[in-house]
Amino acid sequence: AIEEGVVDLEKDTFYDSGSVIVSGARIGCWKAGGHGHQTFLQVLESSCNPGVVKLGNLLGKERLFSYLDLFGFGSKTGIDLNGESKGIIFPLDRVGELELATTAFGQGVSVTPIQQVTAVSAVVNGGSLYKPYIVKSFLEPETNSVIKSYDKTFVRNTISKETSDKMKYALESVV
Known about the structure:
Mean pLDDT: 96
Helix content: 25-40%
């Protein structure tokens, strides 16, 4: 939403009453009665599901799902481990209002831990997504010489450096 310019985390606001109704389903905030009036930075800080649903709606399903794809969700990372799963992402043609809402705050998808780490790493390193590796290199135990090594493998850009900087600030603010 930041990359697309549909929200300013510090200027745009949201009122959290404690829940939002989406397609007849009530999506609640973890805080009974809600958080009240907050900036979208505060929405992230407080992990407010209704506020993130609003962000998902501002972005729209096509753009949200294009970013899921861009960050590698729904496909294998190519990590050097056997049995990697691609996770589970709704097909775009089956995404309605409720699927958009739950996907926006992370409960409408199933991702692997390595996909999550790879995506968060891209967010905080300037937007560059790299192929993950378990081992950087193998060394011969007696001489300590490199037997095999893996170079950093750039995959693609995901977000701008400016958005990355804003997200680093937001993620630090969450902590």
